[in-house]
Design brief:
glycosyltransferase activity, Glycosyltransferase, transferase, Glyco_trans_1, nine-stranded mixed β-sheet, Glyco_trans_2-like, Spore Coat Polysaccharide Biosynthesis Protein SpsA, Chain A
């Protein structure tokens, strides 16, 4: 099932938005292989648009911006709440025709090399409405505009090149610019490009986005089978003043010119942009004189010429003059990479590559990620601080003064950084830490400081979000997101066969081998595993490999294994290749946790294509559903001989493919989902965006 999130930005277009959503719901009902959700960002409408959408389409997420953010900022606000594999921008003044969404998504899946996809737009009478795509501006196209040639020879490939000639948009064709009335992109690529440039208020932002996409290696393309009806200008009908259509058209065209001027400044060199803007002004003058010559003094272009001083600087300066509102303070240039300080990011890679793998994938999306530095947090720009195991970070060690120093330094630096807009995200790996660190008073102090400053929580599973809410009631209304734990296939060499791995480890070539690998801590219940194993099949073997977390744990394991030659103990740190060999040599990985929410050890075993036995607690049930019953076996209640014996027989007899399907645990998609969460947290919160969830428009 392919998932798609449609983002619609509305401004005083209640009836059109409702009709657009009606057509969208009808199309979603006709597309059984496509699950569609929708987000409507209402830019401070005064016509009751938000309330009307909620009433007619309760499954649609409505974000009431409270003010007119402009198209780019509105789209970014909506896309930050997207959960689909693909994001589709759709104007409210459009009607989705049968088959359009399926055709567009199917083409995107068949031709991912294009990256950016548009369709064909028709007028209400069925004639071509060519605004689904345009050519890019050039000095030649602007010279033709300045001299009037593009009007005299409209749709000429030579004199009106931005119109793309007389092409009917009826063939698959790569184009320079796809407009925002119908624009499809994979959510991963949306995040990679950084969304739309919020300096654009209205017009030009989609051209800038398309040109940035092309610069990033995409090849924007039109898919004619994806056809919609578009009432051009319907979504901006309120741009003018009531009762004065000519003045409204003049102001609206001035906004178009402001968008063009902004585009030239953003994409061209300063000197070239100056020439380009001069040609835009000349074109406005030429058309204004023509209007005067035919007795239309004071028409659209005369108004544009008189307002040249307002639109020529481009946005955001042109916004106040043309629309009467100040630029949004948070408006940002798209493409600027987010700066993330993570604790930890890369420094613990030798012990657990989880965070390093996550942040390398985020770096590939263009983000700047560093290990947390209190100094940088206090003195430099930081968008997001991402914490993983705060008790381990701040409470480790047996000297209270060091713990207090860490808390003072971090939260002091954070207080300074928050004034610059820094946000805090916490991945709640376990609601209760496996070991109690420091004193009860300092643990309580950390909890108060942490929960007072967290702007978003992440969990590796849906059950983890629920557990975090229960364990930290203070975070009940904090935005929450699910970002799974990725696999480890790129971090270990799992190429050895079972026979080769056993030869390296001096294990018998034949016979069933169960294993428990990794750091040996009390919650992993290894001594009990040994006791249970001793009463089982004399032909099976059990390998325990890893460093015990304490002398007491080492003694408990050694005592439980004493006198049984079937048990192999290697109680020491295991290098990566040794870990890989133990896993490849085993037939079953046994993880009889006393308590657990998420298990990196289980995912490590699955990465080595080895079946796993885990208790049905925390997110283990979700893992079993995700990977399948051939790879994850769960048990209820206490771990006992029946659970282990059944799992050994299952590991031996259950047919399974050679490779576990971990496609849902790819790091690229997880990094994109994490970046989605960052961007959502960086947006101002509304009641509708407190918790992200997938709601299809058709159940």
């Amino acid at each position: 099932m392919t998932t798609l999130t449609v983002v619609i930005v509305s401004y005083n277009t209640r009836e059109q938005t409702l009709a657009c959503l009606d057509s969208l719901v009808a199309e979603a009902a006709r597309a059984p292989g496509l699950e569609v959700s929708a987000v409507v960002v209402d830019n401070g409408s005064s016509d009751g648009s938000a309330e009307a959408v909620r009433a007619r389409h309760p499954a649609v997420l409505v974000i009431d911006a409270g003010e007119n953010l402009g198209f780019a900022a509105g789209v970014n606000r909506g896309a930050a709440q997207a959960t689909g594999e693909y994001v589709l921008l759709l104007n409210p003044d459009t009607t989705v025709l049968p088959g359009a969404l399926v055709a567009l998504v199917d083409f995107a899946q068949a031709h991912p090399e294009h990256g950016l996809y548009g369709g064909r737009t028709l007028a209400a009478d069925g004639s071509l409405e060519p605004s689904s795509c345009w050519g890019a501006p050039s000095l030649w196209s602007l010279l033709c505009f300045a001299t009037g040639l593009s009007t005299a020879f409209a749709r000429s490939r030579l004199f009106d090149p931005e119109s793309l000639g007389r092409w009917q948009r009826d063939t698959v064709r790569e184009v320079p610019v796809i407009t925002g009335c119908l624009l499809l992109i994979a959510r991963f690529d949306w995040n990679r490009l950084g969304g739309m440039d919020e300096r654009f208020f209205l017009y030009g932002e989609d051209a800038d986005f398309s040109l940035r996409a092309a610069a990033a290696g995409m090849r924007p393309v039109i898919v004619p089978a994806a056809t919609i009806v578009h009432t051009v200008g319907g979504s901006t009908s309120e741009a003018g003043r009531p009762g004065d259509r000519r003045l409204g058209n003049g102001r609206k065209m001035s906004m178009v010119m402001a968008g063009k001027a902004t585009l030239l400044k953003a994409r061209w060199s300063p000197a070239r942009a100056v020439v380009g803007i001069a040609l835009l002004r000349a074109g406005a003058l030429t058309r204004g004189l023509l209007e005067r010559a035919v007795g239309r003094a004071g028409g659209t272009w005369g108004e544009v010429w008189r307002r040249r001083g307002e639109w020529s600087p481009g946005y955001p300066a042109a916004r106040a003059a043309l629309f009467g509102t100040a630029p949004v303070a948070s408006a940002r240039a798209a493409g600027r990479p987010l700066v993330i300080e993570a604790e930890p990011a890369f420094r613990t890679e030798h012990a657990n590559p989880y965070t390093a793998r996550l942040y390398r994938s985020m770096s590939e999306l263009g983000m700047t990620v560093r290990d947390l530095s209190y100094w940088r947090l206090a003195t430099a720009h930081v968008d997001v601080v991402h914490l993983h195991w705060p008790e381990l970070t701040f409470l480790s060690g047996d000297r209270s003064w060091r713990v207090v120093t860490r808390l003072v330094l971090f939260f002091g630096a954070l207080r300074v950084a928050r004034r610059r807009g820094t946000r805090v995200v916490w991945t709640v790996h376990n609601v209760v830490d496996h070991e109690q660190r420091s004193t009860p008073a300092l643990r309580a102090r950390l909890r108060r400081l942490l929960t007072a400053n967290v702007d978003g929580i992440l969990s590796l599973s849906a059950s983890g979000v629920e557990a975090a809410r229960r364990g930290y009631p203070e975070l009940e209304h904090t935005p929450a997101f699910v970002t799974p734990h990725g696999h480890y296939r790129a971090d270990y060499d799992f190429s050895a066969s079972r026979t080769e791995a056993r030869a390296r480890l001096d294990l018998d070539r034949d016979g069933l081998v169960a294993a428990s690998i990794g750091q040996l801590r009390p919650y992993k219940n290894v001594p009990h595993l040994l006791e249970v194993f001793r009463g089982l099949d004399p032909d099976a073997r059990l390998a325990i490999a890893g460093r015990p977390s304490s002398d007491e744990e080492r003694d408990a394991i050694t005592d439980a294994a004493a006198g049984d030659p079937r048990i192999v103990l290697e109680l020491a740190f295991q290098p990566a290749q040794r870990v890989a060999d133990w896993l490849r040599a085993s037939d079953l990985v046994v993880l009889p946790y006393r308590a657990i929410e998420n298990s990196g050890s289980a995912i490590l075993a699955l990465s080595a294509n080895r079946p796993v036995l885990v208790p049905r607690i925390g997110a283990m049930g979700e893992l079993a559903e995700l990977v399948g019953p051939a790879w994850v076996r769960t048990y209820d209640g206490e771990f006992d001989a029946a659970a282990l014996a059944g799992a050994l027989a299952w590991a031996r007899d259950e047919p399974r493919p050679e490779v576990a399907d971990l496609s849902e645990l790819e790091w690229g998609a997880i990094a994109a989902a994490t970046l989605d969460a960052y961007r959502a947290v960086l947006q101002p919160h509304t009641a509708e965006t407190k918790e992200r969830r997938w709601v299809p428009v058709v159940e």
